[in-house]
Write a structure and sequence with these properties.
With 157 residues, this protein is of the alpha+beta class. It has a single domain, classed as Roll (Pnp Oxidase, Chain A). It is built from 5 helices and 7 strands, in the order ααββββαββααβ. It has a 7-stranded antiparallel sheet with strand order 2-1-5-6-7-4-3. A hairpin with an 8-residue loop joins strand 5 and strand 6. Helix 4 crosses helix 5. It is globular and about 55 Å long. It starts with a helix and ends in an 8-residue tail after the last strand.
């Protein structure tokens, strides 16, 4: 019969295509009482790594400043078992707080998340520039990766 785990693993190309297709990552850090703190975040893939932005004063940033370890989960097909697929990273988090990186992230989100995508106009650039002072970019550097794509089993378990 063989190892089912190895049958459902994604290749690096499949991982990158999946991450480009999906839109929300669940990021889990360690909260102030030591309990997991999970939050959904929009993300972009930059140089093969998941990046997200959030408010500088958010709980998740405080958590990641204290302990940079995070688990990042992107999944799909959650309502139909044979369609389940996902990528989970155990990652070290790099927090970027320079305004250029933060602004670049904000502007990059327009094409990914705005209806119809498109290029930012001057008003959008200024709005993102104002937001950049309040935000940071979280870059998740994978230490360990687990993937699954149940569609590869063809309905046979």
């Amino acid at each position: 019969m063989g190892n089912k785990r190895s049958q459902i693993e994604m290749s690096e190309e499949e991982i990158q295509a999946f991450l480009e297709e999906e839109r929300v990552a669940i990021v889990t850090s360690f909260g102030p009482r030591g309990w997991p703190h999970s939050m959904p975040l929009w993300y972009q893939v930059v140089d093969g790594r998941i990046r997200s932005w959030t408010f500088r004063k958010s709980q998740k940033v405080k958590n990641l400043e204290r302990d940079p370890r995070a688990t990042v989960l992107v999944e799909a097909g959650y309502d139909v078992y044979p369609e389940l697929r996902g990528v989970m990273y155990e990652a070290e988090t790099v927090i970027h707080d320079d305004s250029e990186t933060v602004l670049d992230y904000g502007l990059g989100s327009i094409g990914r998340y705005s209806p119809g995508g498109g290029e930012p106009d001057e008003a959008m650039i200024e709005a993102f520039r104002a937001q950049a002072a309040k935000r940071v970019v979280l870059e998740f550097v994978p230490v360990h990766t687990v993937t699954w794509d149940h569609r590869k089993l063809g309905g046979v378990y």
